C-alpha cells in the first residue's frame, strides 16, 4: 500500500492505493489558511492518517507516501519554497522530512504539476504514448512535458505553457509580461477580469453564487453553476479562456509534435 497527498490552496486530498492503484482509503481536509508550513504539514499528516484508517492500516505500514505540492520543490532535499498561495510559505520548509517523521514512513515530495503529468503518462490520458504534453488549468495554468519516456525539465522551468504568449501586447499576466495564456485562462485572472467588468457596471450572477456557496473566490464550482444558469459574462470569459488555452496548446503541439 502507498499513500498520496495533493496539497492545494483550499484543500488537502489524501489517498491510500493498493498494488493496482485501486483506492483503498481517501480523506479531504481544508488547507489551513492561517499559520504557516508547520500547520499545513500537520493538517496533511492528519488527512493521511484519516485515509489510512479507512484503509485499515497505520501510516507507518505504508511502503511510502508521495506528495504533490505547489511552489518550487527540491525533490531530492524534500523541501518546498515560495508556495505563495499557501499561508506563510514564502521561505523554504522541509516538508518531506517533517511528514516522514510524523507518518513513520518514507516520503517523496515533488511539484504538483510534475507528478500529475507523470501519473497521466503512466496511468491516465497519456497511457500508451511515448511523449506527452500535459496542461493543467486551475488558479494558474501549468504544464509538463514527457519526451520519449523521460520528463523534460529544460534548465528547470520547462513546460510553463501558461506563459506562452498568445497575444502580443495583450492582457497583463502575473509574471509581469503581457499576453500570456494564463492572463486569459488562469482562474485568478478570470476572476480579476470579472471584478473589473462588474466595477464598470456589467451584470453577472458570479459573485452572488460565490457568496451563496460561502466561498471567498470564484471556484470551479461557482463558474460551473453560473454557466449552467446561462450567465452571459461567465460564458464570455470562459470562451475567452478556452480560446487562449487552445492557441497556446496548439502552438506547443506544433513545436513538439507530441
Ligand atoms: Zn505570464
Task: List its salient traits.
alpha+beta; three-stranded antiparallel sheet; 11 strands; binds zinc ion
Structure summary:
With 258 residues, this protein is of the alpha+beta class. It has eight helices and eleven strands. The protein has helices at residues 37-55, 95-103, 112-123, 182-185, 187-199, 206-212, 220-228, 232-256, and strands spanning 2-7, 11-17, 23-30, 64-69, 72-74, 79-81, 92-93, 107-111, 132-137, 141-147, 150-151.
Protein architecture, described:
- This protein folds into two domains: 2-116, ATPase, nucleotide binding domain (Nucleotidyltransferase, domain 5, 2-Layer Sandwich); 129-258, ATPase, nucleotide binding domain (Nucleotidyltransferase, domain 5), CATH 3.30.420.
- With 258 residues, the protein is α+β, with helices and mostly antiparallel strands.
- The chain is globular.
- The longest helix is centred in the last third of the chain and has 25 residues, at 232-256.
- The strands form three sheets. The protein has a five-stranded mixed β-sheet with strand order 3-2-1-4-8. A three-stranded antiparallel β-sheet has the order 5-6-7.
- Strand 9 (132-137) and strand 10 (141-147) form a beta hairpin.
- It contains eight helices and eleven strands.
- Bound molecules: zinc ion.
- The site of zinc ion has 6 residues, from loops.
Write the layout of secondary structure elements.
Layout: E1 2-7, E2 11-17, E3 23-30, H1 37-55, E4 64-69, E5 72-74, E6 79-81, E7 92-93, H2 95-103, E8 107-111, H3 112-123, E9 132-137, E10 141-147, E11 150-151, H4 182-185, H5 187-199, H6 206-212, H7 220-228, H8 232-256
Parallel strand pairs: 1-4, 4-8
Antiparallel strand pairs: 1-2, 2-3, 5-6, 6-7, 9-10, 10-11
Zinc ion binds at residues 163, 173, 175, 177, 180, 182.
